[in-house]
Every structure is written in structure tokens, then in C-alpha cells.
Hints:
There is one protein chain. Helices cover 34% and strands 30% of the residues. It has helices at 36-49, 66-84, 134-147, 161-180; strands at residues 5-11, 15-22, 29-32, 52-59, 93-100, 103-110, 116-120, 127-128, 131-132, 150-157. The strands form three sheets. The protein has a four-stranded mixed β-sheet, with helices on one face. A four-stranded mixed β-sheet has the order 5-6-10-7, covered by helices on one side. A hairpin with a 2-residue loop joins strand 5 (93-100) and strand 6 (103-110). Helix 1 packs parallel to helix 4 and helix 2 runs parallel beside helix 3 (134-147). The mean pLDDT is 96.
Amino acid sequence: MSARTAKISRKTNETDISVSVDLDGTGKNVIETGVGFFDHMLEQLSRHSLIDMNVSAKGDLHIDDHHTVEDCGIALGQAVNKALGERRGVTRYASLDLAMDEALTSAAIDVSGRPFLVWNVEFTAAKIGTFDTELVREFFQAFSQHAGITLHVRNLYAANSHHIAETCFKAVARVLRTALEIDPRQADAIPSTKGTLNG
Length: 199
């Protein structure tokens, strides 16, 4: 099987981003976006999905974090989509409940080629430090759209916004890990009766 790796560069008037991924890695990462809390969340995404991930971003942080976070989601999604190719052999589906202290978050995924995000998460605070909590959804919207995945994320209960965000990233990481793994029983097949997972 060929290596499932990809590199993406994205440059606009608002951001300059370079991303590389290895879907069959060990969770190694180098993350530098200029947004400390977001770096921490992307490190969790890489570590718990076992996707090796390098993300370098320079954005208009003098305005706010929005463009940087959203555009990183776009670039990461494009990289994952490119690395998947035909999506041949992938397990495709996964779901998980992930606990962290008082917080419990559910994530479910279909690596379908059809992008869709269902987001049922409410934060208990508008900010985590200086980071706007609404940007968590913006990241996953951009990521799912450009990765070509259906993603459902639901926080069942929690008190702490940091824990809510972290369980979202970790839960998505774990379902990505399972769904992107090659199924040895169908390693050369596309897991769809349509014969394609590209839309």
C-alpha cells in the first residue's frame, strides 16, 4: 500500500499556512499557529488520532484568532482528504464516548466523501483564556467540509469549558484513528456499495 501522506500550503491575505500529515503515523507533531490554546488542541488531535501532523501558521492575530483557526481547519482537512486518496480499505465508520473529569463528549464519523457537521456542544464560558470557544465549532466545520467526512459531535454534560473543548478534540481524534485505519478484511476494497467514497 502506498504511503498515506500529504502536504498542503494555503496562503491568503489573512493567513499563510503549511500542513503535512501522515495518516499511519504515531502521533508525532510540530504545531505552531501563534494561538496557544489552539496549539494544545491540535497536539491532542494528532496524539490521539496517531496522525503525524506538522502545522505552521501565520495569521492576522492582531485582529483575532478566527481566520487562523478556520484556515488551519481548511488546510488540515485538505491534507487528510488528499492523503486518503480513493479511501480504499478504510474502516470508514467509528463512534465513541470520551470522558475527562466531569465532561463527557460523544463523536461519530463516516469517512464518506460527503462533508457534514452536526454540532451539539454548548460551552459554559465564552472564552478559555483569550481563546473564543465558538472557534472550536469553526475549526471542525472547516475540517469536516474539506476532509470530506460526516462528523457528529455532542457534549452530553460538563462544567468546565476547557474540558468541553478538550473532550471534543480527543473524541474526534479517537474516531478518526479508528475510521481511517485499514481494515485487513477489505484492505483493497472501497467500503461502499457505490464503489466510491468521493462524494
